[in-house]
Design goal:
The chain is an alpha/beta fold. It has 2 domains: 54 residues, Helicase, Ruva Protein, domain 3 (Orthogonal Bundle); 137 residues, 3-Layer(aba) Sandwich (Dna Topoisomerase Vi A Subunit, Chain: A, domain 2), CATH 3.40.1360. The strands form 2 sheets. Strands 4-3-5-6-7 form a 5-stranded mixed sheet. Strands 1-2 form a two-stranded antiparallel ribbon. Helix 5 links the parallel strand 3 and strand 4.
Length: 210
């Protein structure tokens, strides 16, 4: 008989679900499960309520695909932002990392991934078409709402660079100015792990994709 089989069924099920989380093995899942068991009811129920609230109320902004709890995120709604510039990133966590620098005051667009032919991820699997639609739509709005520059803030990996090259090629066909974050970012790293100073330098030193 395994040690886990000695647990009551609800505990086993909690451990199994916790063990599915990234970076959480069976031992860590057991520790977390016992932490929940030892917590008072209000603490445990608050955790449960927070998980439910995230799944029920948090979704993607219909404009940029950032995380939000409404139809449009607070960044897209902010009239003080520069609506002529859109910084393209792979995931919401990259947007958050760049936003924390306080150095960028334009809008964003989250691709929800990157091109990876080996993994079967093509342009249709990302929000690329929505980005193109945003640009086209902005051309029919006021001058202060027209998107004139796309800044590519993809992670400096093989897949990220491939995605950036594809986007730059397509965006130039649309007559859109394209730049990318400066290579102060170490090759092969991720934006979410870079410190604020490195990200700020990357934003200020963005380079043309010509």
């Amino acid at each position: 008989m395994s040690a886990s089989s000695a647990y009551p069924l609800p505990v086993r099920e909690l451990i199994e679900q916790l063990a599915k989380l990234p970076g959480i093995g069976t031992r860590s899942a057991e520790r977390l499960a016992f932490h929940v068991l030892k917590s008072d009811n209000s603490t445990a129920m608050a955790l449960s309520a927070a998980i439910s609230a995230v799944k029920e109320s948090v979704h993607h902004c219909r404009l940029c695909y950032n995380l939000c709890d409404g139809d449009v995120c607070s960044i897209c709604q902010d009239p003080e932002r520069d609506h002529s510039r859109v910084l393209v990133v792979e995931q919401p966590k990259d947007l958050i990392a760049l936003e924390q620098t306080g150095m960028y005051r334009g809008l964003y667009h989250v691709l929800m991934g990157r091109l990876s032919p080996l993994d079967g991820i093509s342009p249709g699997d990302l929000t690329i078409s929505h980005l193109f639609d945003r640009i086209e739509s902005s051309h029919h709005q006021g001058q202060d709402q027209k998107i004139t520059e796309i800044v590519l803030g993809l992670n400096p990996t093989v897949e990220g660079d491939g995605t950036a090259l594809y986007l730059a090629s397509e965006l130039r066909k649309m007559g859109t100015n394209v730049s990318r974050l400066a290579r102060g970012l170490p090759s092969g790293s991720s934006l979410e792990y870079a410190n604020k100073a490195v990200l700020a330098d990357a934003i200020l030193g963005r380079q043309s994709m010509d």
